[in-house]
């Protein structure tokens, strides 16, 4: 994997292998966190799952809201953006039951997200939300969005494995944008 270049969507997703996990493990050990870890997750998720939009959100259970900690599209979805998630079916599934959410069509996105017009307006038609948990509690989410019909059940399992490496960064509560000069 090249450290200086991030591929957003490969022509054909690869299979997750030990080299991807080694890349994530090495990134956790580097100085400059959470940048190094977010970058590595970005690279591996792009290679193995694929996406056009990637965001990583921290979760504040007391306020029942998520806050964007990382984005590959800071002009559209800036770091620090917050969303209330109180009482939604999505919140129950992802934030409380710790189960991935997958919508394969724009209709599924419309039913779950207030900002569906922004996503579908960018040609995004499927989404995969991965809960990041530690000690039985959701601490954030990894959100991948792509063209309609992109995500499958297999991507959920891959996302859970890749996303688990985000726990230290989300526990630390740091934020970074793909567009910031010190992050990439």
Describe the structure in your own words.
The chain has 184 residues and is of the alpha+beta class. It has one domain (18-172): Beta-Lactamase (2-Layer Sandwich), CATH 3.30.450. It is 35% helix and 22% strand. It has seven helices and six strands. The protein has a six-stranded antiparallel sheet, sandwiched between helices. Strand 5 (126-134) and strand 6 (137-146) form a beta hairpin. Helix 1 packs antiparallel against helix 2 and helix 2 (35-48) packs antiparallel against helix 6 (153-164). The longest helix is centred in the first third of the chain and has 14 residues, at 35-48. The protein is globular and about 40 Å long. The two termini are 14 Å apart. Mean pLDDT is 87; it is low at 1-11 and 179-184. This is GAF domain-containing protein. InterPro entries: GAF (IPR003018), GAF-like_dom_sf (IPR029016). It holds the Pfam family GAF_2. Residues 36-170 form the GAF domain.
Keywords:
single chain; 184 residues; alpha+beta; Beta-Lactamase; 6-stranded antiparallel β-sheet; disordered N terminus; GAF; GAF-like_dom_sf
Layout of helices and strands, plus pairs?
Layout: H1 18-29, H2 35-48, E1 53-60, E2 65-71, E3 82-84, H3 89-96, E4 101-103, H4 106-112, H5 116-121, E5 126-134, E6 137-146, H6 153-164, H7 167-172
């Amino acid at each position: 994997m090249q450290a200086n270049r991030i591929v957003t969507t490969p022509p054909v997703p690869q299979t997750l292998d030990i080299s991807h996990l080694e890349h994530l493990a090495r990134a956790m050990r580097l100085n400059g966190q959470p940048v190094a870890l977010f970058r590595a997750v970005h690279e591996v998720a792009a290679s193995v799952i694929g996406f056009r939009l990637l965001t990583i959100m921290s979760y504040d259970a007391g306020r029942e809201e998520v806050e964007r900690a990382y984005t590959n599209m800071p002009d559209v979805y800036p770091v620090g953006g917050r969303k209330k998630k109180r009482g939604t079916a999505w919140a129950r599934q992802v934030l409380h039951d710790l189960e991935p959410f997958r919508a394969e069509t724009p209709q599924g996105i419309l039913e779950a997200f207030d900002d569906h017009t922004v996503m579908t307006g960018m040609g995004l038609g499927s989404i995969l939300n991965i809960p990041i948990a530690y000690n039985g509690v959701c601490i954030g989410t990894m959100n991948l969005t792509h063209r309609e019909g992109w995500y499958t059940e297999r991507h959920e399992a891959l996302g859970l494995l890749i996303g688990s490496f985000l726990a230290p960064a989300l526990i630390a509560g740091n934020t970074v944008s793909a567009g910031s000069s010190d992050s990439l």
